[in-house]
What does this fold into?
Amino acid sequence: MALVNEHFLQLPGSYLFSDIARRVRMFEEQHPDIPLIRMGIGDVTLPLPKAVVGAMHLAVDEMSRKASFRGYGPEQGYSFLVETIIENDYRPLGVSLDPDEVFVSDGSKSDTGNIGDILGKDNIVAVTDPVYPVYIDTNVMAGRAGVLTESGIWSNIRYLPCTAENGFIPELPSEPVDIIYLCFPNNPTGTTLTRAELRKWVNFAIDTKALILFDAAYEAYITERDVPHSIYEIRGAKQVAIEFRSFSKTAGFTGTRCAYTVVPKAVCAYTNAGDKVMLNALWNRRQTTKFNGVSYVVQRAAQAVYSEEGIRQVQKMIAYYMQNALLIRKSLLEAGFEVFGGVNAPYIWVRAPKGLTSWKFFDMLLNEAHVVGTPGVGFGPSGEGYLRLTAFGDKKLTQEAMSRITAWKLSSLKSNNP
Amino acid sequence: MALVNEHFLQLPGSYLFSDIARRVRMFEEQHPDIPLIRMGIGDVTLPLPKAVVGAMHLAVDEMSRKASFRGYGPEQGYSFLVETIIENDYRPLGVSLDPDEVFVSDGSKSDTGNIGDILGKDNIVAVTDPVYPVYIDTNVMAGRAGVLTESGIWSNIRYLPCTAENGFIPELPSEPVDIIYLCFPNNPTGTTLTRAELRKWVNFAIDTKALILFDAAYEAYITERDVPHSIYEIRGAKQVAIEFRSFSKTAGFTGTRCAYTVVPKAVCAYTNAGDKVMLNALWNRRQTTKFNGVSYVVQRAAQAVYSEEGIRQVQKMIAYYMQNALLIRKSLLEAGFEVFGGVNAPYIWVRAPKGLTSWKFFDMLLNEAHVVGTPGVGFGPSGEGYLRLTAFGDKKLTQEAMSRITAWKLSSLKSNNP
It folds into this structure.
């Protein structure tokens, strides 16, 4: 009799985005004449940079001729891409990496999900709260989460609250934990850590032999000098951290699919008997056994992100989104909202006015301002009372959304509700 | 203290292909003037079909304009591709599938590896022997394999021998098993099952509540009428089988990366308490949580495989490889070898003459005929005494390889060794 992995049965449905979709659909059915502006989903809207498009056409043509056709590539990624990544993303930071420490993949969602394959079931996992749901759900699937309590938290997961009260800087865990997910610049709050703050985490991991899974998918949006782009800028991090990077938000690859993960040869985990094991070798074995590499055409696309032209075009794209972020921040602050993030990240985290819940605020924005956000509580208990807006939209629509929210805030002030 | 998944430490190195590479390198260093012909690795060599190339160029252009740009797509694949698959690969067989029973992915290696995520740890796994190593290695990683014994088999895996003695038709297990991997047409033996033989397996699975993981990556190479292209041609299979299909060998996508997996809504596994669970919902949850869909450009490429032009071009490619297979079969039979496969598959499974081991035969072909194959024992104990040749090479090189092997056989007959 074939047995299922019963941990999957513990997962509640992923209600957040289906709930949002249901409410949006209901509104649209009742008000087919009112166009909504969607600022909920973190997906890019600008087309691929011209340099990337050109490289893809060339690569497609290579695949059309027998002499230049490419079959199976290395599961870890072609060296033309791996070396370009090291040269451009790490060398300027003073971080040296060997080519076999970089693993090209189809996405950070895959990698942050699959990394659990190489880790033991009995690890205690810590996450910042609010959090990207994949970190928790994949640990539920692997049997590391314990049981879901009535308050919506998992009994074996350690939640590290990030709220306005602590400036969105998580406190070090009071008890030991084994695996720590850190995502900075953060999704969903849009806030980040300074070098000094990140250093505390690296030192904590070194002291307690914990492993940091560092998601740097938004590093390209950093504007402030004191914010590290890579965890490996911190001394000692190579011993304790795996870093995830993606082209999705950097170069508009959400529909093109390319990312990479850095597993330094120094980073270790342990057997129950306390023996050190090199995670690089385990991840390499995982990837060569369960993955067959990224499409050649897509790897050429990713390489072109680093061409002179590509760098310029990508910077322009990011500047476009960050102008939206600036506009959102400025408009909401002027309208009297409490606003976080949006300086080193394309996400703006808005406090719901007058103690409204996330969902109440969401509903009011939907029904009265005709703007769709994402209720913060959907990302975890500490997200309650917040709402996430994204800066990935069209500039004019973003402006229009801000006019609507400002007008709504003014009228609600007059009516004193809320 | 971060703990590793210690099951990874049980895996021996993947010696097969590195051993082959080492011996080939040694030969080439000693004989830089002798060009080898490589018939070892199952990778295609013909370029992408023109219809596919055209579709990719169009899709790249779509991605270059804001109005037609695509960000995140559905994790399960775009409906334009899913519906095309159902219409072309299943409807003609009399198999009806709903769109949400088909999951597009980046490869069958990923899917046959990741499918274990949704299955319990305590399943007893059966594999045909010889076998594609991924089926075993991924179960080792998941802790289902037990320990590696001295004879090279895993204590908890049930091996179903497929040799010339049983016509490469595995016998039904004598004891119950929970999960059965079947790959037909088979890699590495190139043999397959008739409809009546496959029916026995489906009935066995129905009777014992087992789950069949059916790898049909080579179905496009079937030439005989009585060989099923899909396990769902067998009545009742939708209750007990998941089917894996790939564009890699069908349309030359080994470097382009697209495949799909069919998880019918009827297929179930069970909780320890004996409750039925729909695997479709679990796989959907796995894929939406740990995967972000296949590149839009690649999905358009796969769709073009089914265009009128694409179908014609793909048929021509397959015919080219199958002419190689025919040539290999004919040449080796004429030279006095015992040869299997190559009729419904691009693999030819050659019995080593006069009781040679796989590796001895490999070494003789390498050093004396200057042709590289794959030692059958690398695929499992029942592969001992065989060697795999692939038909994916260039026609002229394949002809030349056959001349060399024939000449070698003749001269070795004269010298009576072997």
In short: Chain B touches chain A through 83 residues (CB under 8 Å).
